Predict the structure.
Amino acid sequence: MTWIYLARGNQAVQQKLFKELFDGHIVEWVLAVLLIIFLIWLIVWIVGRFRENEVRHVDARELLLQFAEMQREGDLTDDEFRSIKKRLVDSSEDNTEQTKKEEDLPDTPEGNDQQTPG
């Protein structure tokens, strides 16, 4: 019923309706809007933090294929490609060594130094 009056453009009814809605409640409306804005910001911030902590594993072979394609297209020179290839190979070897070292470490911080009684 109220929407009919609003659609007809009855100025007095529109003013009465808005006065009833906002009269004495403007502070509550402003606080509600601010609270909603804060909650949206908080959700976006939390999602951003979780995405920061994701492990972004990039396969060296896939990168090498992409760079080889760039070299074939002429976007990279032979020297640039060799330099990138060397870095990728070195970093993949470092990652492999690091993984092996982590697998060799004991589960406990003290090591496996278990003393037998007696």
In short: The CA atoms of residues 9 and 18 lie 13 Å apart. The mean pLDDT is 76.
